[in-house]
Design a protein that fits this description.
The complex is a heterodimer. Chain A is of the alpha/beta class. Chain A contains 14 helices and 17 strands. Chain A is globular, with a radius of gyration of 22 Å. Chain B has a single domain, classed as Sufe protein. Chain: A. The longest helix of chain B is centred in the C-terminal third of the chain and has 15 residues. The chains are: A alpha/beta, B alpha+beta. Bound molecules: pyridoxal-5'-phosphate.
């Protein structure tokens, strides 16, 4: 396989749109990625030839819908290197983390500890704070190094016999830093703590082998991984899913309901109460299939070449600073920067006038902004369909902001 | 397009930093945050015996629009009746198209923000902080 960015771009209809007279330079993939025809077609096929509820009907459309839904689970499982019955469809990455915080959280006792880090997205902080309120667990925070990585040298100090779970971003949505998963798992094993990864920013960059990582829980969002909105994935080791009580109650998650007592369905159904987001699940299955067909070694090199081009270009603009690792090692294509004297929102707004979409602000990581005493950053996040033109348009916009706004 | 948003007048107001800083002994102050974008404005005022604003100062941790708005507000607030501050806010709301009618100087500078709904709160934040301080 080889990598042809023009060919990838052709598969994403939105990239050839002209908005307000300009082509789109879409560098906000970390917030939501664009979606390829393969996904749009899969959802359309469901809506036009197989739309029905799942698991409940004997008619043909219901059978088609159920088969497509379960096939999507198989595609997601292949993408993660796990078994389909270990894959739970949720409403998103946030929903998946909340599921663990609630259901796994019910197995914890007051005084048990959960270890997080200062660079987590709010969705990997607040569900645990809510759990702390509900059940008296304690939270510990790994600090962050100057170059925006989780400081794993603090692991021995912060892991205790009370630590039951370590939940960390696989890739930071602000700094792009890749977690050293092996080091975390090894350290966690010494105190028998489980490890959960928030894979929201890693999953969009190619297939995974979760069993080889040695972790226990994995969460990601469909819409950041070229799939539809309203769908996310929780993977957990089967024995953990088996031990966990349900999160939501309703249809489909039961064994037998009587008014006195209800028994639970086995996982993953136990965690999919009610009618699931069927079309989005089918779309995410197609997105996983689409990602699996890409040559990711070449695609990753391409993405990182864009990162290098961006970092080189920013260095040539007076008063820019990076928040994140300066090297390309153990890093993914998320680049946060500051332009001295210009607020990130004004940078992003100027970029918009150059047809460049980026994100500015705290990126739902306020503790990390506090750590660096920042109001926010401007963030460019790349996908395989981005090209040099996108980066050059961004750099032109930053130069313009530097010249006119300070 | 944003080239029109950051017109010279807005940039000039922000750079003028009229009233930027703190007061040594304010009679009132208030801080306002915009949780959406993280902008933060702190306003200090002193009010004289006749109910007029004698001094005003602001600290803005926020974008250019917020800075320009705080600067514009400070440039016209001194000497005004506390009760009439709400009129200035209406003027700003008219300038950005949230209320009908004609706006006055210096708030007319914010007319380009009409087309940028997501940025209008940035302009109003200093007014909210001042109203909080005076309430
Ligand atoms: C690292 C990380 N975790 C979690 C999330 C939450 O994803 P969602 O809002 O799709 O549930 C995001 C998205 O912004 C993210 O970047």
């Amino acid at each position: 396989m080889s990598f042809d960015v023009a060919d990838v771009r052709r598969q994403f209809p939105i990239l050839s749109e002209i908005i307000d007279g300009r082509p789109i330079h879409y560098l906000d993939n970390g917030a939501s990625a664009q979606t390829p025809l393969a996904v749009i077609d899969a959802v359309r096929t469901y809506e036009t030839t197989g739309r029905a509820n799942v698991l409940r009907g004997v008619h043909r459309l219901a059978e088609r819908a159920t088969e497509a839904y379960e096939n999507a689970r198989i595609e997601v499982a292949k993408f993660l290197g796990v078994q389909p019955m270990e894959v739970v469809f949720t409403g998103g990455c946030t929903a998946a983390i909340n599921l663990v915080a609630y259901s796994y959280g019910q197995l914890l006792k007051p005084g048990d500890r959960i270890l997080l880090s200062e660079l987590e997205h709010h969705s990997n902080i607040v569900p645990w704070q809510l759990l702390r309120q509900r059940s008296g667990i304690e939270l510990d925070m790994l600090p962050v190094t100057l170059d925006g990585r989780i400081d794993l040298t603090a692991l021995p100090r912060l892991l205790t016999n009370k630590t039951k779970l370590v939940s960390l971003a696989h890739v930071s949505n602000v700094t792009g830093a890749l977690l050293d998963v092996r080091a975390v798992v090894e350290a966690a094993n010494t105190v028998s703590a489980k490890v959960m990864l928030d894979g929201a920013q890693r999953a969009p960059h190619g297939p995974l082998d979760l069993p080889a990582l040695g972790i226990d829980f994995y969460a990601f969002a469909g819409h950041k991984a070229y799939g539809p909105n309203g769908i996310g994935i929780l993977w957990a080791r089967p024995e953990l899913l088996e031990a966990m009580p349900p999160f939501h109650g309703g249809g489909s998650m039961i064994g037998r309901v009587t008014l006195a007592k209800t028994t639970w369905a086995p996982p993953p159904r136990r965690f999919e109460a009610g009618t699931p987001p069927i079309g989005p699940a089918i779309g995410l299955g197609a997105a996983c299939q689409w990602m699996a067909a890409l040559d990711w070694s070449a695609a990753h090199d391409h993405e990182m070449a864009l990162v290098q081009r961006l970092m080189d270009g920013l260095q040539g603009i007076d008063g820019t600073r990076l928040l994140g690792p300066a090297s390309l090692q153990n890093r993914y294509p998320v680049v946060s920067f500051m332009l001295d004297g210009v607020h990130p929102h004004d940078v992003a707004q100027t970029l918009d006038s150059f047809g460049v979409a980026v994100r500015a602000g705290h990126h739902c990581a306020q503790p990390l902004m506090d750590r660096f005493d920042l109001d926010g950053t401007t963030r460019a996040s790349m996908a395989p369909y981005n090209d040099n033109d996108d980066i050059d348009a961004l750099l032109a916009g930053v130069r313009h902001a530097a010249k006119t706004l300070r | 397009m944003s080239d029109q948003l950051y017109q010279e007048r807005i940039v000039a107001l922000a750079k003028a930093k009229t009233g930027a800083g703190k007061l040594a002994s304010p009679t009132k102050s208030a801080r306002r945050d915009n949780p959406l974008c993280g902008d933060r404005v702190t306003i200090d005022v002193t009010v004289d015996g006749n109910g007029k604003i004698a001094e005003i100062a602001h600290q803005v941790r926020g974008c250019l629009l917020c800075q320009a708005s705080a600067s514009a507000l400070a440039s016209v607030a001194v000497g005004r009746d506390v009760a009439s501050i709400v009129d200035l806010r209406h003027d700003a709301e008219r300038a950005i198209g949230r209320e009908s009618g004609e706006a006055h100087e210096p708030f007319t500078a914010f007319a380009p923000v009409r087309d940028y709904k997501s940025r209008q709160e940035c302009v109003l934040l200093p007014f909210e902080a001042l109203q909080d301080a005076l309430s």
